[in-house]
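DM from R.C. (forwarded with permission)

"hey, sorry to bug you on a friday — could you get me a structure for this? deadline for the figure draft is monday and I only need the backbone to look sensible"
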Amino acid sequence: MALFKRGTTWWVSFTTPGGERVRRSAGTSDKTLALQYHDQLKHEAWRIHMLGEKPRRTWQEAVVRWLADTKEKADHSKDIGKLKWLDEHLGDKHLDQIDRDLIDRIGRLKRDESSPSTANRYLALIRAILRMARDEWDWIDRVPRFRLYREPQKRVRWLKPKEAERLLAELPPHLKAMAAFSLATGLRQRNVSYLRWDQVDLERGMAWIHADQSKSRKAFAVPLNEDACGVLIGQQGQHPEYCFTYQGEPVERTSTKAWARALERAGITDFRWHDLRHTWASWHVQNGTSLYELMELGGWSSFDMVLRYAHMAGEHLKAAAGHVVWRDKYFT
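My reply, with the result:
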């Protein structure tokens, strides 16, 4: 039977030329519309079988497969959040309906409600899904070409040692310990929040971040200097499993009201928790750590990621700058 009803909704049912049984909701209580949907599906099935055309795939199908194929991504949960927003604009589309005009409209909407950089994250996700649909799943033949927005180059925000001391003095004990450890190691917030004692060897002065905890998905060692070891020694005995806790649990969020109030009391503005990592890196470069050493210490996946700190490494150029001295010669 080509059409049948479940409740008030019509369903279509037929067998494709290749012998596959198709049974699908038409999503309507109108029999005429349901019949049109049935005929469209049968026609597409015939073209796929007889002419070798690819079946039309929907954005929703692509999203489901993308989330399954990329569940090991460090920012998987962020992808889910972006896809929920994109569903309003792409949820009813087939992949071959997603063209440059539609993508440009989506980009403008997100740019106007947030920023060019945020819009770029959404556009990059659309591009990644479409490219995977083309290159790996063989669902589509082409991906629309579109440009990302130009993003303003942001300066690296970091604290001088005296400013860092003022901030630490204003933080509550659990955040103070975490911030001090971050300034000593450069670890990202999540790596500090969920650092376990079995990842630490105080006798050797080493800690380890496992591959599934790393943003780059590569394990790396964390040498612990005197400051880092001192913080951990102070945390011993507070929790049997995790190094940093509050009320018996790992600290999931650090950018809290307590953090904001401490910044205000310390007289520090325009400073995020992640800027502690920038501060650590800036101090290293200013004190002679090479960019290659910094890349390994910070667990960055590429050299390009540490080039933002290159302008702070000027000490090695002082001798070269002294090769040309002309003031005394011309102003005597």
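R.C.: lifesaver. Residues 31-51 form the longest helix (21 residues).
me: no worries. The radius of gyration is 28 Å.
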